[in-house]
Recover the amino acids of this structure.
């Protein structure tokens, strides 16, 4: 049936939803005093063209189905809409009639319009409140970041407009705080603001907001806009004001920081920037991932908020932040958005048939604006991702001393600039000498690698640098992706055994320093060494290939084994006692890196034979079998007892990885003098700080 326009005035159409740009969104129509949506059944580009023209755009470039911009609320006004494309208004097209549909809001249709306005088009209903800010009114608060309290303002034309607070609820505040990167909201002292706002002229662009509290952006809430010619008053109300509570890592007040803890059984891994990553959850002491079936912005927001960030900007599927290892604990997570933790949401426990790691869910969270990227810059590089580091201290810019400049410090610089990971920490930057900044103003920088900015790392109070010439200033090369190596812990446990190997078979190993020092005093070639043997399988689960830092011209030929070693020290093998000190010397193994095997659909790219390229491809692993030389710890001198076997990959952080916390593997180890048992082999932090002893690093 054809629909007659319901009133004499033109039908109102608007775009809504999130995430979207101003020329796309869920289509909403205003009929009989309320906004409603259109169902996607029979929807076509012709329908989209009619709607885009009604919205003041010249045409449509596409349309969307299945509530791509989020589910609408209220009525579904139209269904089975069939336009020819030339109609003036959507209500001139065929359909089932107003309010007659068999759809749910899961089928809300959207359009993507060409970003070109019809010349002279007036009274556009296009909602554009993409940009929202808090304007602080207290002088102190203006200087301090993040801004957590103030008048809510939305970008309007070339300026900023306010929102009338009549009917404003704490749910609206929750949404505003979430989209600005804050997990919680606080009550605000309205009387204080009332006095201030009475002296200011407000322009009210939005008249009422009715969020449910689970939306991830104000644009996703039902909104009423001020009529074009109506006086922009807000009688009986004032401009909406909100106060938010930042997550602990963004707090200035350290007392509060200690009280507010973020979740300890949920974490993000593999993200290049703050507040993004693959979602991992902890169960029975083992971390696992979440499958992406039905993964939504609501579930992603629960994760973001419990980790001290705001609501989610994106709920990513298909292992966009790299594939995890180990168990997959959850599938079809269906959070409503109010839950305190993802563990409180309904989900299915899964079996391995349901999901693979190619379906690991990830998130990008809203984080508060801290202004940290404006206190640092990199200059002189061939691209925006590399250069000499310059920092601002007070009002002065200067360089950083490169003595002790390592991957950890460079990682912090790249993170602070929003450029991902550091591929290389550079100690000489004469070839990037393009800046007129010559003074060195920071030295002795020592970071843990997790800081948000260089100023949060330890550094000398007064600058002291042996090589203070500008050409020795610190530099970085950043990258959006990095490798991530992880050892297959169960395989070590399954393959361990003891071998008494005759010395006449160990000449090669002795040459490569794979035996403990007492072997030198042995009566060669008689006698034997007792070896703890196991297989190591090292997976690259990152988003870039792992390649040795050294170019092939400096690789070392090992005649005994007949191949080149591309990394001088690639793993540490150690046997430790309970307090972390070594009982067997262990050794530092240098390897030839190659792809032994790969997961389905990935082809091998690196091999050691014939001076081949060395490395480990994403999705592949390098296997060192228990029966190859040096794949052991010499325990000839070890007494029976309980020990810890520790293997650390890439121990000196020589090659950049997105995550160094999974480079160590530890096993509990029982040795009775004849046999050995390993149990509880797991990936985790390496033993560096011994209990009861101070870490003796000099800061």
């Amino acid at each position: 049936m054809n629909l007659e326009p319901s009133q004499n005035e033109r039908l109102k159409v608007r775009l809504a939803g999130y995430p979207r740009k101003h020329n796309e969104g869920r289509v909403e129509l205003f009929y009989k005093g309320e906004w409603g949506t259109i169902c996607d059944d029979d929807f076509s580009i012709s329908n989209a063209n009619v709607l885009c023209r009604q919205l003041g755009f010249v045409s449509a470039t596409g349309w969307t189905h299945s509530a791509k911009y989020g589910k609408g609320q209220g009525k579904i006004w139209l269904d089975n809409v069939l336009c020819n494309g030339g109609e003036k208004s959507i209500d001139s097209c065929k359909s089932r009639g107003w309010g007659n549909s068999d759809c749910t809001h899961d089928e809300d249709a959207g359009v993507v319009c060409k970003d070109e306005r019809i010349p002279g088009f007036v009274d556009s209903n296009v909602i554009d409140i993409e940009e929202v800010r808090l304007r602080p009114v207290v002088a102190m608060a203006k200087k301090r970041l993040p801004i957590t309290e103030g008048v809510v303002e939305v970008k309007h034309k070339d300026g900023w407009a306010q929102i009338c607070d009549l009917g404003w609820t704490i749910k609206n505040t929750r949404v505003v705080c979430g989209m600005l990167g804050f997990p919680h909201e606080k009550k605000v002292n309205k009387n204080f603001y009332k006095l201030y706002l009475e002296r200011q002229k407000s322009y009210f662009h939005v008249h009422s907001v009715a969020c449910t509290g689970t939306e991830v952006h104000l644009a996703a809430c039902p909104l009423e806009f001020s009529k074009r010619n109506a006086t922009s008053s807000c009688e009986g109300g004032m401009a909406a004001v909100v106060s938010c509570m930042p997550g602990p890592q963004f707090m200035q007040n350290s007392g509060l920081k200690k009280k507010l803890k973020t979740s300890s059984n949920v974490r993000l891994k593999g993200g290049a920037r703050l507040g993004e990553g693959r979602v991992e959850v902890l169960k029975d002491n083992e971390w696992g991932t979440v499958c992406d079936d039905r993964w939504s912005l609501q579930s992603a927001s629960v994760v973001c908020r419990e980790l001290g960030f705001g609501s989610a900007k994106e709920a990513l599927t298909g292992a966009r932040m790299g594939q995890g290892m180990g168990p997959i604990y959850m599938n079809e997570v269906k959070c409503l958005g109010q839950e305190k933790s993802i563990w409180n949401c309904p989900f299915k426990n899964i079996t391995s048939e349901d999901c693979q790691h190619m379906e690991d869910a990830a998130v990008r969270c809203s984080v508060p604006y801290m202004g940290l990227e404006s206190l640092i810059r990199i200059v002189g590089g061939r691209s925006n991702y590399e250069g000499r580091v310059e920092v601002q201290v007070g009002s002065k810019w200067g360089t950083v001393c490169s003595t002790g400049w390592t991957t950890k410090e460079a990682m912090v610089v790249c993170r602070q600039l929003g450029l991902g990971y550091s591929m290389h920490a550079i100690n000489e930057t004469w070839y990037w000498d393009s800046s007129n900044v010559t003074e060195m103003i920071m030295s002795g920088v020592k970071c843990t690698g997790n800081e948000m900015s260089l100023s949060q790392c330890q550094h000398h109070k007064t600058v002291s640098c042996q090589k203070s010439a500008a050409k020795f200033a610190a530099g970085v090369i950043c990258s959006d992706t990095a490798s991530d190596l992880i050892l297959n812990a169960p395989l070590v446990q399954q393959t361990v055994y003891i071998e008494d190997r005759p010395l006449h078979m160990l000449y090669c190993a002795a040459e490569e320093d794979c035996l403990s020092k007492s072997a030198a005093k042995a009566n060669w070639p008689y006698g034997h060494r007792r070896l703890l043997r196991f297989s190591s399988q090292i997976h690259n689960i990152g988003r870039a290939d792992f390649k040795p830092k050294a170019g092939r011209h400096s690789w070392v030929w090992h005649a005994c084994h007949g191949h080149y070693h591309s990394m001088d020290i690639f793993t540490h093998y150690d046997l430790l006692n309970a307090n972390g000190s070594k009982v067997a010397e262990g050794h530092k193994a240098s390897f030839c890196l190659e792809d032994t095997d790969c997961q389905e659909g990935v082809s091998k790219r690196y091999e050691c034979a014939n001076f081949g390229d060395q490395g480990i491809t994403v999705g592949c692993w390098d296997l060192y079998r228990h029966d190859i030389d040096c794949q052991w710890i010499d325990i000839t001198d070890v007494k029976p007892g309980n020990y810890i076997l520790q293997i650390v990959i890439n121990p000196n952080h020589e090659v950049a990885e997105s995550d160094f916390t999974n480079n160590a593997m530890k096993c509990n180890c029982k040795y009775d003098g004849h046999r050995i048992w390993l149990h509880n082999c797991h990936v985790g932090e390496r033993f560096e700080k011994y209990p009861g002893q101070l870490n003796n690093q000099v800061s």
Summary: The first strand starts at residue 12 and ends at 16. The chain is about 10% helix and 30% strand. The chain has a mean pLDDT of 85.
